[in-house]
Every structure is written in C-alpha cells, then in structure tokens.
Amino acid sequence: MAELPVVPEWVGILAAGLPRGVGGDTPADERRAAAERRAAAQHVQPLRWPATWPDDDMRLAMVATTYAKQIGRAVAFSLAAFRQAFAGGRALDEDTILIAAAACEMHPRAVLQALGRRSVGAALDAATAAAAAAGVRTLPAIAIGEVVLQGGDAVEQAVAALAERGAPG
Fold first, then answer.
1. d(CA 13, CA 142)
2. Which of 20, 88, 105, 143 has the greatest number of C-beta atoms within 10 Å?
3. 80-114, pLDDT tens digit by residue?
4. Is residue 75 a part of any domain in this protein?
5. Is the preceding omega at residue 140 within 30 degrees of 0, hence cis?
6. Does 53 map to a domain?
7. How far apart are CA 68 and CA 111, in angstroms?
C-alpha cells in the first residue's frame, strides 16, 4: 500500500454531484468486486458492504464530514464513518454518523445541529462544485497542483508524481 510523503488536505465532496467520468456507469457489482480486489491486494480486512450500498444517500454523511472539516476533524470522522460502513456493514444514516462522531470526540448535539445548518450544506455543495470544475469525475481523487489523479490507484499515482517532483518523504 502506498503512502503519501506529504499530508494532503482532506475535502469531503458528494460523488453524486460530479459529472460522470470513465466507468461512471459501471454496475455496482463490478465496483464492489474492484474494491474487494484492491482491499485484498493491500492486505486489509475484507469489506462488509452496507445493505443499502450503493443506493445510500450520502449527503447526510458528507454534510457531517464537511462539519468535521470545519472543526478540524475531517480525517478522523471520515475514517470512523467509513469503518462503520465498510468494516461494520452499517448504512451511513444518522445513528451511524453519531457513532462515528463520538469515536472522534465530536459532540452529538453539535453534529445534529450541523446536519441541519444550511451553511454546512452549502459548503459541501461548493466543495463538490469546485472538485467538478477541477476535473474530478470519480473518487478517490487527489489534486497535485493542476493535475487531478482519480480512481482506485490515485494514491499510488500521487506517490509516483510527488517522487518525480522531489516532494519530501
């Protein structure tokens, strides 16, 4: 598994708000199989898919991620939420979001208030629009300057690109 030599800025965006790129019409079972192959190749535990994936409405979880970014907890919250979803097999509904938030010391009342705040939803929409304008079509995506690397091997591509640029290790 590749590891970036620099700490990236972690920005939550709503995949449903991106223009479809290559593979955007790939059936869910093929996307699952590809993700399972990547997990096996990286020697991580097998994925446990939420029963509702990929039909989950991710907006609520991504609004929570946007709020987490605003308070300096984007990475911790995102990792906790995705552990709940893809290690625990839980849908990213309000209860799961609160469990993930508690795991990274986010107060449940503050999270619930943020989920209903228009400004937090607008910040998510703005981040999604900026990603789309930068050329993001599929996730994950990593921007290095004007270059956007996307898809399952984006981290490996970013490691190679940063090594070429001489980024610190």
1. 12
2. 143
3. 999 999 999 999 999 999 999 999 999 999 999 99
4. yes
5. yes
6. yes
7. 8
Exposure string over 47-79, b if 16+ CB within 10 A, otherwise e: beebeebeeeebbbbbbbbbbbbeeebbbbbbe
Token pair in block for residue 37: 């192959």
Asked whether residue 158 is assigned to any structural domain, the reply reads: no
Strands (E), 94-161: 141-144, 147-150
User: How many domains are contained in the chain?
Assistant: 1
Q: Are 96 and 46 in contact (CB under 8 A)?
A: no
Long-range interactions of 96-101: CB distance < 8 A, separation 24+: 96/61, 97/60, 97/61, 97/64, 100/64, 101/64, 101/68, 101/77
pLDDT band at 22 (very low <50, low <70, confident <90, very high): very low
Contact (CB, 8 A) for 45 and 56: no
* pLDDT tens digits along 145-158: 889 999 888 888 99
Residue 157, judged by CB atoms within 10 A of its CB (0-12, 13-18, 19+), counts as middle
Write out the two tokens for 156.
């490996």
Q: What is the pTM of this model?
A: 0.86
